[in-house]
Write a structure and sequence with these properties.
Two copies of one chain form a homodimer. With 191 residues, chain A is an alpha+beta fold. Chain A contains nine helices and six strands, in the order H-H-E-E-E-E-E-H-E-H-H-H-H-H-H. The structure holds a DNA duplex (30 and 30 nucleotides).
Chain lengths: 191, 191
DNA sequence: AAAAACTCTTGATATATATCAATGAATGTG
DNA sequence: CACATTCATTGATATATATCAAGAGTTTTT
């Protein structure tokens, strides 16, 4: 149940057994089924979720009620709305379960306790957020000013794993094109 | 010369006098003039820059040679290409001086020394990157799927300071529209 | 097994925005 | 001060992509 978490921590920092036990017991396991919501628009995000198994995605709804996918999270990834988590303000985002999942939930109090008590945990978190920032910046570069075809090519190059696990219309939303356009881009690809 | 840096640190963490001295002396001051380059495409980013005074911006060049603005940095902000800084690989970005500037430069060795030696510095960095991540995610939301007019409205709402200090064509690039379109959006606004 | 809901594809049309081009204003430079 | 750059505006046109609409194939639900 905690394999992915342990693996993720060990990839970036070294923990004593005692530190690991303290981390481990700060999380609460939670199973969720496809289509369930981890967070809904208007809620305050009070917890961080670590994905042990399965897949989640977050999105906002535009004025016409269309989903605007923000990001996906698979095994070994974190998911939350950090803005709401840190500010305590209601979120504009929904987090929905894409595949039946096993999550490890960490509430704010425990998160802060770990940051204080376990220095490698704070280091881990710095590195994780750093990496997420770099990836996100790359995404901004790919979102602005590219054609639909270029966006799709870059997705294939940079995040091929998404293609097998995520419905095409969510991919379309993620790269900021309509589902029809993505379908046509893919169509012209096969010729 | 170190006012902004001290202010930025104190906003997020508490440092002993000794820790502050250690931080301070790890930086190297550097003056730069408008149009000079802090980093050029193909270079490896080996330093973090903190802006004491002035303004910088980073951008990549698309296939047609047009600038694609990634971000701006004013007093109290950090600037670097983190991807290149952490991986040691050559950057695709240019960092150019927008207004004559006073920078504080921190090389990788000193950065890592501070992370090790000064716990509040690591905490500061975690928080800074966290905040940058939240801001960047907001930007992705604003970049994808909005009309030119909506993008401009959100920029006014969220980063009004940019408008006074940055030429309009760079703003246009930053929000991902052509300079002509931005000009027209602004024009229709004044009526 | 039938019905319902979801997903992808394909076609026709509309539209927002890029592109091309010219002009004038503002700014910097020898 | 003349000259060259840079910058913003405006018009005409082209084009990529959204939107609207229908149908076929899947998957899910009852």
């Amino acid at each position: 149940m905690y394999e992915q978490l342990k693996k993720s921590l060990q990839e970036h920092v070294t923990l004593s057994d005692k530190e690991w036990e303290l981390c481990k017991h700060s999380f609460r396991p939670k199973r969720m089924l496809k289509r369930q919501f981890l967070l809904q628009e208007g809620d305050v995000c009070r917890e961080l979720a670590f994905v042990e198994k399965g897949a989640l995605y977050s999105y906002s709804l535009d004025m016409s009620g269309n989903k605007r996918v923000i990001r996906f999270a698979f095994e070994g990834w974190w998911m939350a709305n950090l803005q709401s988590f840190f500010t305590g303000k209601p979120t504009r985002l929904n987090i929905e379960v894409l595949e039946d999942s096993e999550l490890l939930i960490l509430d704010r109090k425990n998160h802060e306790m770990l940051l204080e008590q376990v220095p490698p945990y704070e280091r881990y978190h710095r590195i994780i957020v750093q990496n997420a920032y770099v990836a996100l910046q790359r995404r901004v570069e790919n979102a602005l000013g590219l054609t639909a075809e270029e966006k799709y090519e870059r997705l294939i190059a940079e995040s091929p794993a998404f293609l097998n696990r995520v419905p095409q219309h969510l991919i379309a939303s993620y790269i900021g094109v309509s589902p029809e356009t993505l379908s046509r881009v893919r169509g012209s690809y096969n010729r």
